[in-house]
Design goal:
The chain is an alpha/beta fold. The chain contains ten helices and eleven strands.
Length: 279
């Protein structure tokens, strides 16, 4: 029986990094690995998953591994034997913070129940799966994510000095309110400290800049579309990675920072304390 991956590849998005690295690793240890990429014709990406996956998901005798649970959010998802799904999180169900999540979340859970096996990236997410689906515990396997140490290693030269780093999106669960509150606390003791945020500026950032009288370009720096080589140097040069997320499927920036020799600071709760030593 053959083995086929189905998923997007990326150098920056967590699920895409997972797909790319999984494909590369399996190719090294096994022959006959195939890959199919989901369609991208429609914008936003969610419409491809909802409307086009029913036509593009391969059918056959091979094991089909969906590397992103979002591809289950599909009208007319096909009945498949040998279906394996990697679940990074169930926030489309439990948080429903983006357009269409109210439909996508329940549909992901409905179709996930048809999988023969599920791989997930933390014990926290496993418990979410067991809570929201009828799957047996023995069919859900935790495999923690790794970090590519040919990409992330100590490497100075970011151009910033005496700064704290944040890497992440602007989703509510990333807790940008808490990020700026923590940075303001640091500034009371270290008025020369700066904050570098990789992920852009949203309305919360603008409001917190005003609240704490912080100046963009002097006290706080916003960066987007950062190459991996520059991100590596930012991780290395930072005094710490501030990672105040309230909820995560895993928290990849924490292990990337640690690989570059920089301590991550996060809440002592799952899955953050699964990923980091409790100290």
């Amino acid at each position: 029986m053959g083995y086929r991956l189905y998923g997007y590849e990326s150098t920056h998005v967590g699920t895409g990094i997972y797909t790319r690295k999984l494909h590369s690793h399996i190719e090294r240890i096994s022959e006959g690995v195939e890959q199919s990429r989901p369609p991208t014709a429609l914008k936003p990406v969610a419409l491809n998953q909802i409307l086009l996956n029913r036509f593009s998901i391969p059918r056959g005798d091979e094991v089909l591994h969906l590397t992103n649970q979002d591809d289950l959010a599909c009208v007319g998802f096909p009945s498949l034997d040998g279906l394996v799904v990697t679940v990074h999180d169930l926030f489309r169900l439990t948080e429903a913070s983006r357009p269409l999540d109210g439909w996508r979340g329940p549909k992901i859970v409905e179709n996930l129940s048809e999988a023969n096996a599920v791989i997930t990236i933390s014990e926290f997410t496993k418990q979410q799966i067991l809570k929201h689906t009828p799957m047996d515990e023995g069919d859900v396997h935790v495999v923690y994510q790794g970090v590519d140490q040919s990409v992330f290693y100590p490497d100075t030269g970011s151009g910033f000095e005496e700064f704290f780093l944040h890497v992440g999106s602007s989703l509510d669960r990333k807790n940008l309110e808490g990020l700026f509150d923590a940075f303001a606390h640091i500034r009371r003791r270290r008025p020369e400290a700066e904050l570098v945020r990789v992920g852009g500026k949203d309305s919360t950032c603008r409001r917190k800049l005003e609240e704490y009288d912080l100046v963009q370009g002097r006290d706080v720096h916003f960066l987007e579309d950062v190459p991996l080589s520059e991100l590596r140097r930012l991780y290395t040069d930072a005094e710490a990675l501030l990672f105040p997320s309230k909820k995560e499927g895993f928290g990849r920036p924490m292990i990337e920072a640690a690989a570059c020799g920089t301590r991550p600071i996060a809440f002592n709760k799952k899955p953050m304390n699964e990923v980091l030593p409790n100290r």
